[in-house]
Amino acid sequence: MAKAKKIEPLTGEDLLKKVKELENLSKEEKAKQCGYYTVTKNGIERVNMMKFLNALIDAEGIQLDSAPSANGRGGRSASYRISVQSNGNLLIGSAYTKQMNLKPGDEFIITLGKKHIRLRQIDTEDKEDSEALETVA
């Protein structure tokens, strides 16, 4: 009996493209076609669904594990809800600033609506424009 050559498991864009091509197949068959299976000593093919699903999650860019912070400790995760503190302040925590790759000193313009607050980051062009206006005034 001739052994079928096992393909290397697909990852990233190649995996996503192949899964889209195989949309009418079962998830087990998709995993197998994408190389996520092993052959036992008895010649039985065993689909590795966990590796396949994890590869799909990675290919989609979804981060399930929280990235450890620089000091090695985990922090709070973003809940996308905040409350007004007893002193009247709204605190946007580091979970959000880290997610947006904000650095100390980054500035924002605040726009207030009836029931919302909008923050727009000031980039270098905005800073130059506002500085030019200040010198004119």
UniProtKB/TrEMBL annotation:
The keyword Transit peptide does not apply. It comes from the Bacteria. GO terms for molecular function: DNA-binding transcription repressor activity; transcription cis-regulatory region binding. One of its GO terms (cellular component) is protein-DNA complex. Keywords: DNA-binding. This is SpoVT-AbrB domain-containing protein. Residues 79-124 form the SpoVT-AbrB domain.
